[in-house]
Each structure stands twice: as C-alpha cells, then as structure tokens.
Specification:
Number of strands: 0
Strand content: under 5%
Helix content: 40-55%
Radius of gyration: 22 Å
Structural class: mainly alpha
Number of helices: 7
Order of helices and strands: HHHHHHH
Distance between the termini: 54 Å
Length: 150
C-alpha cells in the first residue's frame, strides 16, 4: 500500500488542508496541547474568545486565518513553526519579533555565514553568466575579479 508523504510530516502527521498546507485545526490543536496552556490562556494571548479558539481547533477547520497579524500571533504565541501557517520566518521578523533575525527564524539555526552565502551567490551569478550570456574568456575575467575581492 502506497501512503502519501507530505512535506509537513517533519512537524507532525497532519491531514492535508488547503493550498498545500496541513489542516489548520489539527496544527493548532497539536501545538495547544504541547503548550500546556489552560483553556482560557490562548484566548487571552490572542485577544479573542474561547469560541474562536474552539473554531480554530475544529478538526474540520482547514482554512488558515485570513488576517496575517492573526497568523503571526498564533505562530508566536503557540510556538508553531511559521511554515505550517503559511508564513516565513522573514515575515515574523519583519513584523517586529526582536528575538528573531532573518538568518535564524523560529527554531532554526543559521546554516552558514553571510560571507559564505555571498560567495555562493556570486558563483551562481557567474555560472549563469557563463552559461547564458558570455564567453569563457569573459567568465574567466569575472571569476578572477571575484577572487581578487576576497
């Protein structure tokens, strides 16, 4: 029997929802249970009613909250990986979470240094230039120039 494997299974085995995201109700229920909050606490943190929280937790709820600030608040308050709510860690950073940096995000470690990333970006640009627009001689000059900058 061939079972489907979804990209979000690294976070939990949630049912498929809309827009290639996991079912929102299952995600919120799971992370609420992990948080150990009382029944009233999520409503206080999110500035909404218990009824709204129950609606979000509903197993039939596959819709993401429409408002971006609401999704950001859910991700921050319940420590939900942003990607499960259709967000990026950059979005959270841009919306003022001072504990984040663009390089780290929520629960992520920096993969490499900025200098290394800039080096790879330059090499990618040079490769593109060589393959699509340039001669070998021109690309070699660009590589020499790039190496002399380091």
């Amino acid at each position: 029997m061939n079972k489907s494997y979804y990209w979000w299974y690294v976070y939990g085995h949630f049912s498929p929802g809309k827009d290639n995201l996991p079912a929102t109700g299952e995600v919120i229920t799971y992370y609420l249970a992990l948080s150990g909050f009382s029944k009233e606490k999520p409503g206080e943190m999110l500035d909404c009613t218990e009824r709204y929280i129950e609606m979000l937790k509903s197993p039939t709820n596959q819709d993401m909250p429409k408002l971006l600030p609401r999704r950001i608040l859910l991700a921050k308050a319940l420590h939900i990986p942003p990607i499960l709510l259709g967000l990026s860690s950059i979005t959270l950073y841009e919306w003022g979470d001072s504990s984040l940096t663009p390089a780290t995000g929520v629960g992520l470690e920096p993969v490499t240094s900025t200098e290394t990333m800039l080096f790879y970006e330059r090499m990618l640009a040079l490769s593109w230039e060589l393959y699509y627009t340039s001669s070998v001689q021109k690309a070699t000059e660009s590589i020499d120039e790039s190496q002399s900058e380091q």
